[in-house]
Amino acid sequence: MSEPDDSRDLEARLRKWEATTLKEALRALPERRGEFVTTSSRPVKRLYTPLDLRNKPFEERLGEPGEFPYTRGIHPTMYRGRLWTMRMFAGYGSAEDTNKRFKYLISHGETGLSVAFDMPTLYGYDTDAPPAKGEFGTCGVAVSSLDDMEILFRGIDVGKISTSMTINAPADVIWAMYLGMAEKQGVPMTSLRGTIQNDILKEYEAQKEWIFPPEASMRLVVDTFAFGAKEVPQWNTISISGYHIREAGATAGQELAFTLANGMEYVRWGVDRGLNVDAFAPRLSFFFNAHNDLFEEIAKYRAARRIWAREMRDTFGAKNPRSWLLRTHAQTAGVSLTAQQPEVNIVRTTIQALAAVLGGTQSLHTNSYDEAYQVPNEKAVRIALRTQQILAHESGVANTVDPLGGSYYLEALTDELEEEAYRYFDRIQEFGGVIAAIRKGFIQQEIANSAYRYQREIEDKQRIIVGVNDFVVDEQSEVEPLRVTQASLNAQLGRLARLRRMRDRKKWEASLDRLRKACEDEDVNTMPRILDAVRARATLGEICDVMRECFGVWEEPLLY
Amino acid sequence: MAKKIRVLMAKPGLDGHDRGVKVIARALRDAGMEVIYTGLRQSPEDIVEAAIQEDVDAIGLSCLSGAHMALFPEVVQLLRKRHASDIVVAGGGIIPEEDIPKLRKAGIKAVFGPGTPLRDIVAFFEKAGSAKGA
Questions:
Q1: Which of residues 24-83 of B touch A (CB under 8 A)?
Q2: Nearest residue on chain A to B9, judged by CA atoms?
Q3: A389 exposure class (CB count in 10 Å sphere: 0-12, 13-18, 19+)
């Protein structure tokens, strides 16, 4: 951005400043530590200046908002036009319990729904399956059938509100249940808006809720891309997620790198299937973490947009600018919440949410202060939602586009994160791609190494976590407990038993047979068959059992 | 030379959150213990079988999904059934405070919540291992 003469002047001025003003200041008061680092242990310099940005054309890397490479945001007016969607991840107990929570959240001003499923559902088991023992509704809602899905959205017009569903290995089945539910509400598929997470690669890497081996899973994912592009055009058929990679211990740079590498892997599989990249890429969406380190987090969102736009345009040859856009959801860092002095988590969440907004997110979930203990209670979740409303309506940060653009520090961090991502892309390429790197345990080990280093830094007090290793008080937790009731479990078990008894057995059997044939034939898209099975009242577990038989199950490399 | 303390680190149930269990496994290994990590989705039967086969001094259970009350006590009961009650069992994860006394009563010797210093956990297993070795 600077003429050579200007930067020589600046260099000279800085040298003088270092020799005089700075030197004196350091003599009077040495700095607090020898090295300053980010939450991700990235070294931070004392001062950033235009000299940090001079190596590459500044404007080209930034662009204008709403234009390639979208560093400053995907919309020309950003939040002046429309605020981000306030979308609170919610789910516990039975479909009835969670339906009540959804209505509570809507009544308090949330603008999009987001479903958390329980462990058995995430893993493709019905509530009454033996491995589900003790897991019903504890960290999400149990959905075993179309009936459950109908209850979950009773009294909510799914033609009007968008719904995001955190579901991966059985994403196609749960999506089919949603489509079946909408059909019964009388809402056509073409007007449905929402997202299925459907990001299986990060399951192998971090979240670990996989069922089938990678190749079979990828085929199922591409089936949803193809089906969605044709039948449910406003639906995001995937949310490529760094969130869980970060929660599992990755640094900001690793989160960025692994997420985008996964994203490009999905695009390759779609293209290899013969899909036109512009037919499905506009429906790819993303999901990033918002952690404690304000500037590093903002930089991560900006770097992500820039890399994605470039790769989609230049590597994959996408022509439609909508294919270049990295649209993202964000969630504050669950892993940063402390059980100690839990109310203080409200402050952490505020800073993290601010990072996501300054980073230009399209939707946001804010964690509740009691989540180091449990699924949040009503009061805690309302405060979390209010945090977003304060950012939107009181803080002023939504009044202008990319307010921190041009900050020497932020721009330098954005560049650094981008470079780190490309270094990881190269390493993954050396393994032979993402799936090969997963099979070798490379990505998992990188994440585990970072998690351990972070914990050691806390242990050694190189890193202060307020209330945990400093500023500690002796206290009893005052978090109001939220419990899943036996009555909810009984209702769910009763409903399942009734469904199995009452359904048309012939229709049900035929639908599962047809699904089995589709699984065995790669040229047949599984989605319509799954939808038929769901309509015939096949349960999640039954459908996944058919697939388990056809595809087998994944065994991960053991490492720590 | 003293026999190395052997610890089985296990994830019972369907929960896939393995950050904590892996960090603990590594901390115990760095402290000189022999650590066997079972991997995810182990039933209480699998865990007890592995503990006996591997002749461990202690078991560390990790669960963040909320299923701890259904899974942790069962491990202790199965150990009793197999006459292996000398194997010490500890647990950790997202565990509401009101559950801790119940788990202790069920024979879980220690419950470690979020934010527990690694050194406390290492010290617990060192003590458990040397008590059993004696």
A1: 25-27, 35, 37, 39-41, 43, 64-67, 69-71
A2: A560
A3: middle
Give B6→chain A minimum CA distance, Å.
16
- B23: chain A residues, CB-CB within 8 Å: 249, 448, 451-452, 455
φ/ψ region of A66 (left if φ > 0, alpha if ψ in -120 to 50, else beta) reads left
How many angstroms away from the CA of A294 is the closest CA of chain B?
Answer: 22
Residues A197-218 pLDDT 10s: 999 999 999 999 999 999 999 9
**Chain A residues with CB inside 8 Å of B64's CB?**
139
Helix, strand, coil in percent for chain B, rounding step 5: 45, 20, 35
Q: Do A374 and B96 make contact, defined as CB atoms within 8 angstroms?
A: yes
Question: What's the pTM?
Answer: 0.96
- Taking the Cβ of residue B91 and every Cβ of chain A, the question of whether any pair is shorter than 8 Å is answered with no
Of B98, B115, B119, the CB nearest to A340: B115
DSSP string, A518-534: HHH-TTS-HHHHHHHHH
Can you list the positions of beta strands (E) in A159-282? Answer: 163-166, 194-196, 235-236, 238-241
Half-sphere exposure of A556 (CA within 13 A, CB side): 28
* Max Cα-Cα span within chain A: 88
ipTM of the complex, rounded to two decimals: 0.94
Render pLDDT for A431-476 as a digit per residue (tens, 0 to 9): 999 999 999 999 999 999 999 999 999 999 999 999 999 999 998 7
pLDDT, one tens digit per residue, over A359-405 is 999 999 999 999 988 889 899 999 999 999 999 999 999 999 999 99
The verdict on A10 touching B (C-beta cutoff 8 Å) is no
Nearest CA in chain A to B98: A481
The architecture (CATH level 2) of B6-133 comes to 3-Layer(aba) Sandwich (3.40)
CA angle, corner A150, sides to A149 and A152, nearest 5?
60
Would you say residue A1 has pLDDT above 60?
Answer: no
Look up residue A314 and give its two tokens.
């230049």
Domain extents for chain B?
Answer: 6-133
